[in-house]
Structures are given as structure tokens and as C-alpha cells.
Amino acid sequence: MKQMVVLAAACAVAGCLGTGPGEPSLGGDAARPAYRVNGVAYDSLAVMPIPDLDLRVGATRLRTDAYGRFSADVDSGYVTFQIFTPDYEPPHLAIPHIKRQFVTLRLRRYAPLVVAFQVLGDSVQATIVDLQGRKTIDRWLVSRVTLHRPVGSSIVLGTGMNWRVVDDFTYQARVAAAGIDSATWDVHDVTGFSVVSDCDLTGHCTVLRSGFQGGVGR
After folding, report:
1. Cα distance between residue 185 and residue 114, in whole Å
2. Within the chain, what is the greatest distance between any pair of CA atoms?
3. Rounded CA gap, 144 and 197, in Å?
């Protein structure tokens, strides 16, 4: 009996009995702590939230709500952000996580948008905003407008438009035209991104499609 007690004690010291049930492992596969990241996605120039944005925060893919807000649990360490839309530049952002983190994603839009349209007697004029704020609209080679009339349509290239600089990111493009019903503007960025908008006589413009040439548009 004495020998059995001594043997059991020696085995416990040597570790041959192993760890008890339910004891935590001291190995390197322990789960990393998760933290909550909250934030909001904004259009950097329009200063408006971006609703329903397809976004990845760390390893979590989600969509922003109607107010551009998002929330995700992430591992400790650096948090990265990725967007899945052709309309905005990818955010180059990796931040160290801190407790109660709130992140504002200010995204730059690719699109050169027609924001106003006017019929001025024998001409039409579009106000075009480069929402990157970089003056990257291709005004000469590929941008064009299709003028629709009851008897048919005609195309005017950028070289046939009168371009006026309004400010650092806005142009006005004027085209001689009379008797039109509507105009379809196909405005290109020098990066190859384009936005096609249809404008009616009331001045209302609707984006028909956008995207990179040869790629998939919206």
C-alpha cells in the first residue's frame, strides 16, 4: 500500500496523469479576444452617409444600414476595411484596434456626375461634378452627349462642347441644340470610369449605368 502511494505521488509530479477534465490548454491555439468596431461610411465630398454599402470589416462581411452605419466583431490587432462596389476608391486603411472603437470611412467616388441640366434657347448645358475633386474628367476624347429629337438623335463629342470651369471640381458643358426632347450624357474619367445619365427637359437626370470601360457597371 505504501508503495502505491509513493508511485502515485511520483506519477503526479512527472505529469503522467495529464490535465484534469475541463482544464484550459496552455498551447498557442487559444481563441483571440474579439472586440466591437462601430462606424459610419461617408461620401467624402458630398458628406453624406452611404447606405447599403457592401463592406468587409476584418473578417466580417456586412452591409451598412440606411444611415451608413456598421458594426462588427473583430480580433485584436490591426483592423482592415474592404468595399465591394465599383463606385468608390478602395479604402487604404488599417488601424490598430482600441476598446470602444468608432471609425469614419470617408470614401472617394469615382463617378463624374451630371448634377444639373438646362435648356437655354438654342443650346443645352450640363453641370458636371467630378466627385473625386481632382479635375480628372476626360473632356475631349471619349465624353459625349446624345441629343434626342422627335425626328432622331445626334451625338456630340466632347470636342464639340463649350467647357467652362466653375471651381476645382465642377465644369459646365454647353452644346448648341434646338428642339430636343432629352439628352443622354456619357461622361468619362481619365481612369476609364464612366457614368451615363439621361436628362429630361425639366432638368431631372437619372443615372442609367456606371462602371469602368470593359468592366461590369452598376
Report:
1. 8
2. 115
3. 11
Q: Are the CB atoms for 115 and 192 separated by under 8 Å? A: no
Q: What is the pTM of this model?
A: 0.61
Domain shared by 77 and 149, yes or no: no
Please classify residue 188 by burial: count the beta carbons closer than 10 Å to its beta carbon, then call 0-12 exposed, 13-18 middle and 19+ buried.
buried
From 92, 56, 91, 90, select the one nearest 74 (Cα to Cα): 56
Question: Which amino acid, 192?
Answer: G
Question: Are 144 and 190 part of one and the same domain?
Answer: yes
Range of the domain at 165: 112-212
3-state class (DSSP) for residue 158? helix
Query: Is 205 within a domain?
Result: yes
Residue with cell 439628352: 183
Q: What integer pLDDT is reported at residue 114 of this predicted model?
A: 92
Cell of 123: 443650346
Mean pLDDT throughout 88-106? 80
Q: What local confidence, expressed as pLDDT, does residue 64 receive?
A: 97
At 18, the pLDDT band (50, 70, 90 cuts) reads very low
Res. 23 pLDDT band, cuts 50 70 90: very low
Whether residues 150 and 102 fall in one domain: no
The conformation of residue 88, written as its DSSP 8-state character, comes to B
Shared domain for 136 and 71, answered yes or no, is: no
Domain count, the chain: 2
Cβ atoms of 70 and 101 within 8 Å: the answer is: no
